[in-house]
Amino acid sequence: MTETILAVDRVTKRFPGVIANDAVTVDIRRGEIHCVLGENGAGKTTLADVLYGVYRPDEGTVTLNGEPLELQTPGDAIAAGIGMVHQHFELVPPMSVVENVVIGTSASQWLDLSEVRGRLNEFFRNYDVEIDPDAEVGRLSVGEQQWVEIFKTLYFGVEVLILDEPTAVLTPQGVQELFRILRRMRDEGLTIILITHKLKEVMELSDRVTVLRLGKVVGTVNTADVQMRDLAQMMVGREVLFQFDKERSDPGEPVLEVDGIHLPSVTGRGSLKGLSLTVRAGEVVGLAGVSGNGQNALFDALVGVEKPSSGGIRIGGVDTAELSANRIAQLGVASVPADRIAQGLLMDFKVKENLVLGRHRSNPFSRGGLLNRGAIDGFANKSIEGFDIRTPSASQSTRTLSGGNLQKVIMARELSGEPKLLVAHQPTRGLDISASEYVRRRLLEERDRGAAVLLMSEDLDEIFQLSDRIAVIYDGRIVSKTTPEQADLESLGLSMAGADTVEAGSA
Amino acid sequence: MADQVTDRAPSDPQPPDGDRRRDPLSMLFQPGAWRIEKRLVVRPWHEFVTLVAALVAAVAIIAGLVLVIGKSPADSFAALYNGAFGTRESTLETLVQATPLILTGLAAAIAFRAGIWNIGGEGQFFAGVMGTWFVYDLWGGLPAPLLFVLMFISAAVAGAAWASVASGLLVRYGTNEILTTVMLNFVILYILSYLLAGPWQSPDTFYYQTQRMADTTYLPRFFSVSRLHWGFAIALLAALVVYWLIRRTTLGYEIRGIGSNVVASRYKGIRVGTVTLATMAISGALAGIAGFGELLGLHHRVQLDIAEGIGFTGIIIALVARLHPLGVIVAAILFGALVNGSTAMQYETGIPKALVFVIEGTTLALVLIAAIVSRYRIRKTG
Predict the structure, then answer these.
(1) In sequence order, which ranges of A400-432 are alpha helices (DSSP H)?
(2) All domains of chain A, ordered by start, with CATH?
(3) Which end of chain A is more exposed for a tag (fewer CB within 10 A), N or C?
(4) Which is nearest to B311 in space by CA: B129, B135, B115, B151?
């Protein structure tokens, strides 16, 4: 088990302005699960893309089974025996599982689908996965689609399988199922490289782990020899707080009262089927759930972009179900959207212009229909300092900021008005540990100031860390309510997966 | 290692090694090859350099065309230049040609800034002409200053109203504005044809045209030797106003906002429908004012060929100017010079005037290519 199958030797890959991989050296052993751990921007995905032939290294070499690997395209990588499953699946939803497996193979050849179907069935049986090879891929669950992606690469007979953040889209049960099968595959001789920033997964699954920071290898260690805390420190370069010293909350009056709202499905945003929820002043309510169960629709209804077809929403005692987004914001509602670039920012605008977005019509930023540039500049400079936004100047184009700084721009904008209600949807998605920590601390500060905070997140650690109460959303409804003290991961996961649960706790 | 993992069925499709270089793109990615990468930040000088390169390339292509017809490019360009800027008179005439183009260019630029594809500048220009004539027809006897004000307002309102047909459909029903604005160009042309064949037709002619307007309605001219009229000043003023509107007002902020990201704008409370209607009204009004200026400054009677594609050229000008209101002035003068200089070129060298359209098209294509090229850079990889 100690034979090296894939050797990465001093690979350097530069992009304009950054060195994504700086003389990275890693050896991957045959038949191991090797995690590549690092924060966002550490160069994990770049390394994977180099191994998969998406990028050519600027310097350094990669050898597979002792032979130098010269990859021009992912096709070459597959031919050499290296497969990859990306974070975003590369499947054709209206086509069947079998068709998705053979797609991309040479179209000039006569394809015997029944032979492919037979081999797929064999795969699925072998790994105890129940998928109908003739099912339409678009109708499969996200977890099942991931199977299709994995088996697609296995069908091509790869020896090394690279998975990029495979658990991001899965329920806790889905993660366990994935890990079970990955272990099986390893035991049968497959080499697995898992790209992740989740420490828990590394500890649970991997044999060895290589930590990247700022494009450089911090070290490669045997997972059994280290603690989670050690890995976190290697990853971030300093000690990390896993628990906030969270004071007990002292909730006041209800600020947000959602009463049985229905919202038909808007394209890709899910639907609500009689959802009720209360958030009081000075508490964080964590809304756990797998994405696609109505979180987007709820967010849209709360901020006023969509109007519920029935049911009521009261914020601070005012019925807001029919109010415009602008009026709702004026009631003291701040929101952090899940997709900060698509929903929260005008990327062509200057940083200072984004900092006043939504308040650009009100005093002091607008006077008589004119922008008050003095007030905007002053506010922007204050925000940049107060929220530690890393930008050369307030007039910098927003497009040039990193993900963490983009989120800080949104946080600065949304929190500056001392909101009564803060709706945060996936506020730390895609952020590195340091930025996540910052955002979470700010959310707790808002709670302590007396704001009602609704936190929607797929990250259960985050839910446990920040929430005073937890609700689980499934299929457009709240299916269970609990507190971090009472809840356990397993039952929460079952609720998220839609297993029938008795409602617990009080609204 | 398990069989199912390592086994490759003989039918397994694999790209044969020798086939690697089938894909011409992969040639670009050879070791040590030049490689194209996206820039993180596009700086103004990147854009400037590519723009200059595009114009040089345009000149080269056109020179090639001139060679093909068997003429001397140098002579032709000299004739073109002299026709456009050679004398004081020709320079002023270039500005005359540029006048309506500035306005229709601004009309397109402000709509495009909002991400609304108003291709109806031509029709809105006609609406402005018709709005002007409508007031003249009705109250032609009013004192000149009052009549001018009323005609101006009427032209702007008519252009705005015609544009609002498209934006109303867009906001209410989500109708694609590209289709509606293009189609409305034809609709208004047929309405005008009807009017010119009937109610508005001059009684003393069989032509489809109105009577000549009274001398008192002529826009004053700057110099006795040229046709340059007050419309040019109005156009320059309009460019400054549009610039100020876009940069300094909350409405301008929202226009740029919905153009940059309509979803985020909606989430942050910008009333996208209202801003869309306002933007199209302003856009239509600008095109309408162009019609006002052409009618009262040059033509003095309504005819079907009064627009001469001015509305469509405005689109090209807006794009060449990268939607910058002050850039529109420069681009409009450039295109005005082409129109003006080409007459002299035809006269002196026998090259057909129609070459101008080739020049316009070539320039547009190259400038658009330059806009994309400026976002990339080429680097040698090791």
Answers:
(1) 403-415
(2) 4-236 (3.40.50.300), 254-496 (3.40.50.300)
(3) N
(4) B129
B13 touches chain A (CB under 8 A): yes
Residue range A247-283, pLDDT digits in tens: 777 888 999 999 999 998 766 677 899 999 999 999 9
B197 burial level (CB within 10 Å; 0-12, 13-18, 19+): exposed
B24 touching A (Cβ < 8 Å): no
Q: Which residue from B minimizes the CA distance to A76? A: B15
- Helix intervals (H) in A14-141: 44-51, 74-80, 97-102, 113-126
Interface confidence: ipTM more than 0.85: no
Residues of chain A found within 8 Å of residue B9, distances taken between Cβ atoms: 115, 119
- 3-class secondary-structure state, position B117: coil
Chain A hits for B271, CB-CB cut-off 8 Å, are: 324, 326
Query: Does a cis peptide bond (omega within 30 degrees of 0) precede residue A419?
Result: no
Q: Do B382 and A58 touch (CB under 8 A)?
A: yes
Contact between chains at A76 and B254 (C-beta distance less than 8 A): no
Average pLDDT over residues A272-299: 92
Residue B115 near chain A (CB below 8 Å): no
CA distance B217 to chain A (A): 35
Q: What is the DSSP string of B323-380?
A: T-HHHHHHHHHHHHHHHHHHHHHHHHH---TTHHHHHHHHHHHHHHHHHHHTTEEEEE
Q: How many CB pairs under 8 A join A and B?
A: 134
Three-class SS of A337-369: CCCHHHHHCCCCCEHHHHHCCCCCCCCCCEECC
Name the percent of chain B lying above pLDDT 70: 89
Q: Which of B263, B114, B268, B275 is nearest to A359 (CA)?
A: B268
For an interface test with A, the pick among B1, B3, B5 (most A C-beta atoms closer than 10 Å) comes out as: B5
